[in-house]
Amino acid sequence: MDILHSQLAAVQQKLSWVQTEPINWKLYVQAFSWTVTLFESYLLLRQYPLYSKKAPPAALEKDFEPGAFEKSQAYGKDKAKFALFSGLYKQILDSTLLHFGFYAWSWQAAGQLIAKLGYNSKYEITQSIAFVFILYFLSTIPTLPLSVYGTFVLEEKHGFNKTTPKLFVTDMIKSWLLAFTFGAPFLAAFLKIFQWAGDRFVPWLMAFMISFQLIMVILYPTVIQPLFNKLSPLAEGDLKQRIEGLAVKLRFPLKHLYEIDGSKRSSHSNAYFFGLPWAKHIVIFDTLIQQSKPEEVEAVLAHELGHWFFMHPTKMLFISQLHIFSILALFPAFLHAPPLLSSFDFPPHVARAPPTIVAFLLFQMILTPIEAVVSIIMNAVSRKFEFEADRFAVDLEDRVRATGGEKAAAGMNDMGERLGRALVSLHVKNLSTVWVDWLYSAYHHSHPTLTERLKGLEQFQAEKMKKRN
């Protein structure tokens, strides 16, 4: 532990200039946040002309019914327009709030609020919680029209919205209550670790955050998810038999198999699994069951179980923890930097002893351009994992045969073909874009494009047959 602290101290020594140099951090944040927003707008403008194409890629022409491709192009075009407007709108809003000292005002307002409750400025954690929720609510209100438009105009226009106004409001209120119920204790513990550990907070904070994530793995399906959706045991039938059989053959620790009423809000479809290493839960959207044949859903689940087999969630968790560690390792220099707060309009008496939460939020703003690059790298890793999971589905027959014999592998020889049909079907029915600019995809997409995945499946199948021969 001492070696870790000495290395972190060396990093802080190299960043000591942050604590004394009168840098205009606000101008820096404004410049780079606008740079990222304009770059994202540029990517949308690169992608937009592709929505004017009159026909899908040749390999997909047979999969589109008359009028289906035109609908997907219209949906993509409307989404692109909305994304361009909402991105610029949010940036203008954030830039305006930053320019007029919204963060400094919010800290002052939080202090006044807790003073009415009998607390003074010595109660930093209490003021920090009030500060965060003032920021959260006051920054959420101006973006509500975007959420309303996206749900009741954009999604409604293209036949996907199933959310009623009452459900929309109820969901929003539930989200706010959950944010306070879980956010306040989390933030209190987060800040308490800083107070207790001082500048040696990094390993303790990492341990706390990992523990919190594991707790949420348990709480989400049992406490949070039921507040929004109904999870019902998957009905008896062919699909259930297929999935349970697949889990047994792969020794997947399946505890529960659920169907979720995703159609309550949208006709988009999905499937996922979650849980602790020894007890996993599979959740299938009712829309996926309605839109796909049982053998195709089985292939989708074979892909998902490929993520489990190769420990992709664990690997992504490890990568994200490295990322968080890197951020926390840099933070102490900014935690003790009065010039940082001064540049964001905080008064001298606050800047002299920077509140932890204020310094941390401002530090995150400074990392904006770095985080944009990190997201591209994370997307690249995620896409690699998606190809590996696709290959797993194609090779599933051979894997099962090797461990369970010929009888266990029966009927799995076309798993890759079934997965390909399922992907095409889901793309068509969800009006997903099939023409994608490579740079736009690299920045935004955690999954390969449909044509990339289909080519990959063909290649994996060819390699499988070549290996057999």
From TrEMBL:
It catalyses: Hydrolyzes the peptide bond -P2-(S-farnesyl or geranylgeranyl)C-P1'-P2'-P3'-COOH where P1' and P2' are amino acids with aliphatic side chains and P3' is any C-terminal residue. GO terms for molecular function: metal ion binding; metalloendopeptidase activity. It is a multi-pass membrane protein. Coiled coil: none annotated. Proteolytically removes the C-terminal three residues of farnesylated proteins. Its cofactor is Zn(2+). It is found in: Endoplasmic reticulum membrane. It is an enzyme of class 3 (hydrolase). It comes from Ephemerocybe angulata. This is CAAX prenyl protease. GO terms for cellular component: endoplasmic reticulum membrane.
